[in-house]
Amino acid sequence: MSSDDGDMENQAELEEKTRLINQVLELQHTLEDLSARVDAVKEENLKLKSENQVLGQYIENLMSASSVFQTTETKSKRK
To answer: For residue 63, what are the contacts with CB-CB under 8 A and spacing of at least 6?
Structure first.
């Protein structure tokens, strides 16, 4: 094996290492982006759950205050 063959192998190894390093860095950035997205979705989910609880309580209060949604006991007493 000549000196040129060794240099070409070293160059090929170096290029492969560089390619792999770049691929790893790209995957790390992708993972960071996905992790940030998951955090944002979790935060939005908590916000929506809280809003749903408030709306549910509001609807319950409206229903209890309205005669339309009262129990039918008063109607059966009339009969």
So the answer is: 69
Q: Which amino acid is at 77?
A: K
Q: How far apart are CA 15 and CA 7, in angstroms?
A: 12
Residue 30 to residue 47: CA distance in whole angstroms: 26
SS (H, E, C) the chain: CCHHHHHHHHHHHHHHHHHHHHHHHHHHHHHHHHHHHHHHHHHHHHHHHHHHHHHHHHHHHHHHHCHHHCCCHHHHHHC
What's the pLDDT tens digit per position in 2-55? 667 888 899 999 999 999 999 999 999 999 999 999 999 999 999 999 999 999
Amino acid at 10: N
